């Protein structure tokens, strides 16, 4: 913006005459005063002056000089306007005119006068309405003086032979009683009336974050007596963040040397009280650090809040830094801190126009909607991330692309949808644009009508123009960080979901990944098949005490429709039911339900807390896998909160991955159930009870998820008083070996009950195995028939076809084989097998095992037949169950590795007769 040379033009020789009187111009309609420096009626009470070299960084230095001067004089109310005008005028002098700029600040009893003089007075000043500025509305020349006309109370231009001096005067505003800015001393009878004593909670925190001090005002504000909170972390009570713009965690804020901001405190009644807090970190005489926190209700923030003061710019900084587009208006916040930048913007916009509320909306990626990103003086929890279409935005012409001033919203209901029900009546809104593209909208509002005019709109538009580029840059930075974070989040989620095939664990992972990262609470509905209704399978809330209440509430409403269309859709049923439940509870507790009035607060806590937890926006995302809806993922926010579009898009990506993982878990569970059912059919249902013989079996199948492998056993009745028993081992492990196991076990029962002898049974089984062709496997088998005798012994007829020999343990502790080895089955067609007879006397044990027991290895060592016999010699006098257990324990302890082969142990013992 130039009032001197057009950029790039060389200054002409000023000549001897210097500045000419005819070059003076008076701004139209502003009554500018010229030549009054010696005839001012007001008394000058303070003066500050500085000169700045004709370099770009001088602009920032001049801004800092004026800002620091006025704040030092205690006149922060006019700092914004003064700095804006000074910035423009110094830019004209040092950048465009190319001369030194002299800045003088004069304080008087009626305001502040600031003068900016350059040393090149010959060029004519383009003024508003002159031909130089009438050619194009976009012309930059002269706009600095247009700002003087818009923002200053009086202004003018003075010429001397060596100087051109542009000055402006700013009155100190008349502040009504009770407004935010400090006002004059007032009589007691006109001071605003407070509802109650202003309470300041004083809380002290030690280095670990635990509360060490809690004063009476804290008890009154939050309902907790000191003995209930001392020693507990403050983070357990803080709801962080309560208002937009809080981009630092509570734990980090407590470690800072100085911090001010807003958050919420959970009271004893379960409700959140918005507070404004000031943190100061100190250390005691012993050097132990702690943090002192002063907290007031958020609407009483003026009690604690100090005036915002921007740091002075470094005179050695680069020109690009000195020309920071938002330093003037915002006070130099960190450019990559979008939330802090936006919140500071709305707070300064509110204060600049002495408004009651302010809000800022940013355009979505497709620029079809505006999303509330910061507000002050409004119910921020309800407004944050709410959306309005661009063409139905807050503008006068039904579009956010145009500035607008509404004198009275009561006359035009719904003109600004975001302000419905807030009590605001007058509002001014302006667009934020970057290179002609709409990037957002900034608005301020007041509770009284007719507060704003086009002049305020011009001031706000100027502020919006200065901040738009910085906001867009910070928004793009945030978007990039969010995208990177989203990719990391999805990669981690995919790894976790891929690491389990358990359905319940997958449901739990889905919920834990969404809460609290994406939502405050979530519920997962699953659908068994197309004919089934959705079923509530899992609920999670960041506060575990609310989970049961949410389950109860969701069980009272119909589940969302399983619509396969992608994307999130709003589900209003939970919020409506929560509101109704809270209303009924409140009426009952107030004795308005018509029934007996319960004691105060009876039942109100859990019901109202649950209602608050699910009373915000609720969205449903379909879980679609293999072209079928298998469930719904429901995400919710607490009362009146909305989801950001970026969060919904991330949740949609997560739902696709979670749906596939959940369907994989379902398929795996189904196949596992089928496999286990088939495997169980290969084992005998239960062992029969045999009079005069103790029997015990221990079976271990190798491989994860296998209940039956290549080893098998059986014990079954053949005829009156006779029982068949078998223990065998099919070559290999796993499902293929289990198939031969089933053939062998069932064939043994059928053939034995036909009255065939042991050799005949095994020969026919051998033929059946060979008939399987390529699927056949060789089989070792010990088969026998047992018949208890009247004298207390038991007669056994056994055939050992390639199987480890059975061992007989006598009462005297000797161990010997009870059979001879014979050919195994499934190898040759013509077998010549024979049976052997063994008599077990009272106290004797017959131990039968598979080779998984005898071939147990630890390095080069193997248990073997001799090792098994040694263990068996220690089992004299034990029952059959104790013998089998000792053998298994010895096998397991023989090696540290898990067994690699199936194992079966069959122990039979003839007990000694009882003696009286």
UniProtKB/TrEMBL annotation:
Give GO MF terms, alphabetically: phosphatase activity
Q: Where is this region: Disordered?
A: 1-42
The chain positions of domain PAS read: 202-232
Q: Name one GO biological process term.
A: regulation of DNA-templated transcription
Q: Which keywords fit this entry according to its UniProt record?
A: Hydrolase
Gene3D superfamilies hit by this protein: 3.30.450.40, Histidine kinase-like ATPase, C-terminal domain, PAS domain, PPM-type phosphatase domain
Cite the record's Basic and acidic residues compositional bias ranges.
23-39
Q: Name one Pfam family in it.
A: SpoIIE
Q: Which PROSITE patterns match?
A: PAS (PS50112)
SUPFAM superfamilies assigned: ATPase domain of HSP90 chaperone/DNA topoisomerase II/histidine kinase, GAF domain-like, PP2C-like, PYP-like sensor domain (PAS domain)
InterPro entries in UniProt: Bact_Sigma-Reg, GAF, GAF-like_dom_sf, HATPase_C_sf, HATPase_dom, PAS, PAS-like_dom_sf, PAS_fold
Q: Which PANTHER family match?
A: STAGE II SPORULATION PROTEIN E (PTHR43156:SF2), STAGE II SPORULATION PROTEIN E-RELATED (PTHR43156)
Which named protein is this?
PAS domain S-box protein
**What organism is this sequence from?**
Streptomyces pactum
Classification of source organism? Bacteria, Bacillati, Actinomycetota, Actinomycetes, Kitasatosporales
């Amino acid at each position: 913006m130039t009032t001197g040379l057009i950029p790039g033009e060389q200054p002409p020789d000023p000549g001897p005459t210097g500045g000419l009187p005819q070059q003076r111009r008076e701004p139209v309609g502003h009554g500018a005063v010229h030549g009054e420096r010696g005839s001012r009626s007001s008394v000058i009470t303070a003066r500050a002056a500085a000169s700045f070299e004709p370099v770009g960084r001088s602009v920032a230095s001049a801004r800092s000089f004026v800002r620091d001067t006025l704040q030092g004089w205690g006149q922060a109310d006019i700092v914004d306007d003064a700095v804006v005008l000074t910035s423009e005028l110094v830019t004209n002098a040092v950048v465009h005119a190319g001369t030194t700029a002299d800045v003088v600040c004069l304080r008087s009893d009626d305001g502040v006068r600031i003068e900016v003089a350059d040393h090149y007075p010959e060029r004519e000043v383009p003024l508003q309405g002159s031909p130089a500025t009438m050619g194009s509305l976009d012309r930059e020349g002269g706009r600095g003086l247009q700002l003087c006309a818009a923002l200053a109370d009086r202004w003018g231009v003075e010429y001397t032979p060596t100087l051109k001096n542009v000055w402006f005067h700013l009155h100190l505003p008349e502040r009504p009683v009770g407004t935010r800015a400090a006002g004059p001393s007032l009589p007691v009878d006109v001071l605003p009336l407070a509802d109650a004593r202003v309470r300041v909670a004083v809380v002290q925190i030690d280095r670990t974050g635990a509360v060490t001090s809690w004063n009476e005002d804290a008890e009154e504000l939050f309902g907790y007596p000191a003995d209930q909170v001392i020693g507990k972390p403050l983070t357990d009570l803080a709801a962080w963040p309560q208002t937009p713009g809080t981009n630092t965690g509570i734990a980090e804020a407590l470690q800072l040397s100085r911090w001010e901001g807003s958050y919420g405190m959970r009271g004893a009644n379960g409700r959140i009280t918005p507070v404004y807090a000031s943190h100061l970190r100190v250390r005691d005489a012993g050097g132990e650090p702690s943090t002192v926190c002063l907290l007031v209700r958020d609407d009483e923030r003026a009690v604690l809040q100090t005036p915002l003061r921007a740091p002075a710019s470094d005179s050695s900084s680069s020109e690009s830094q000195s020309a920071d587009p938002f330093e003037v208006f915002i006070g130099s916040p960190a450019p990559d801190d979008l939330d802090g930048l936006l919140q500071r913007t709305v707070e300064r916009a509110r204060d600049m126009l002495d408004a009651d509320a302010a809000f800022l909306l940013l355009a979505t990626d497709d620029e079809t909607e505006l999303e509330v990103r910061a507000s002050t003086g409004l119910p921020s929890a309800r407004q944050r991330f709410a959306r309005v279409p661009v063409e139905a935005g807050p503008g006068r012409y039904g579009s956010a692309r145009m500035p607008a001033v509404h004198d009275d919203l009561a006359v035009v209901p719904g003109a600004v949808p975001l302000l419905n029900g807030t009590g605001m009546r007058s509002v001014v809104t302006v667009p934020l644009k970057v290179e002609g593209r709409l990037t957002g909208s900034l608005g301020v509002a007041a509770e009284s009508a007719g507060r704003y005019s086009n002049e305020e709109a011009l001031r706000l538009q100027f502020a919006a123009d200065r901040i738009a580029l910085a906001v867009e840059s910070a928004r793009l930075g945030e978007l990039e960080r969010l995208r990177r974070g989203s990719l990391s989040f999805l990669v981690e989620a995919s790894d976790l979901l891929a690491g389990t095939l358990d359905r319940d664990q997958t449901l739990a992972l889905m919920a834990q990944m969404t809460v609290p990262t994406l939502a405050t609470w979530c519920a997962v509905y699953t659908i068994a098949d197309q004919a089934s209704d959705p079923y509530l399978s899992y609920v999670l809330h960041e506060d575990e005490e609310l989970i049961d209440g949410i389950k109860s509430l969701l069980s009272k409403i119909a589940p969302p429709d399983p619509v396969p269309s992608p994307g999130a859709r709003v589900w209003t049923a939970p919020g409506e039911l929560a509101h109704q439940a809270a209303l009924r509870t409140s009426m009952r507790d107030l004795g308005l339900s018509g029934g007996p009035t319960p004691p105060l607060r009876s039942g109100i806590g859990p019901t109202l807390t649950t209602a608050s937890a699910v009373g915000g926006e609720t969205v449903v995302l379909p879980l679609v896998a293999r072209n079928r809806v298998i469930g719904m993922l429901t995400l919710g926010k607490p009362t009146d909160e909305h989801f950001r579009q970026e969060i919904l898009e991330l949740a949609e990506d997560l739902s696709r991955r979670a749906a596939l993982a959940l369907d994989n878990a379902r398929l795996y569970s189904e196949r596992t159930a089928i496999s286990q059912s088939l495997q169980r059919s290969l084992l005998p249902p239960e062992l029969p009870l045999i009079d005069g013989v103790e029997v015990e079996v221990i079976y271990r199948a190798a491989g994860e998820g296998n209940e039956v492998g290549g080893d098998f056993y059986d014990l079954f009745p053949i005829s009156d008083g006779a029982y068949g028993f078998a223990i065998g081992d099919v070559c290999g492990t796993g499902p293929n070996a289990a198939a031969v196991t089933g053939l062998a076990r069932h064939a043994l029962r059928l053939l034995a009950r036909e009255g065939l002898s042991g050799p005949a049974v095994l020969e026919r089984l051998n033929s059946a195995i060979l008939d399987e062709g390529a699927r056949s496997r060789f089989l070792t088998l010990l088969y026998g028939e047992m018949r208890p005798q009247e004298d207390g012994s038991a007669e056994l007829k056994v055939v050992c076809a390639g199987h480890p020999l059975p061992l007989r343990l006598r009462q005297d502790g000797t161990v010997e084989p009870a059979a001879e080895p014979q050919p195994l089955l499934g190898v040759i067609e013509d077998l010549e097998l024979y049976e052997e007879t063994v008599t077990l006397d009272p106290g004797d044990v017959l131990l039968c095992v598979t080779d998984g027991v005898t071939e147990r290895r630890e390095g080069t060592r193997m248990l073997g037949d001799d090792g098994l016999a040694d263990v068996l010699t220690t089992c004299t006098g034990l029952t059959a169950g104790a013998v089998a257990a000792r053998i298994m324990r010895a096998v397991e302890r023989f090696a540290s590795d898990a067994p690699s082969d199936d194992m079966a142990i069959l122990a039979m013992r003839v007990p000694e007769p009882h003696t009286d």
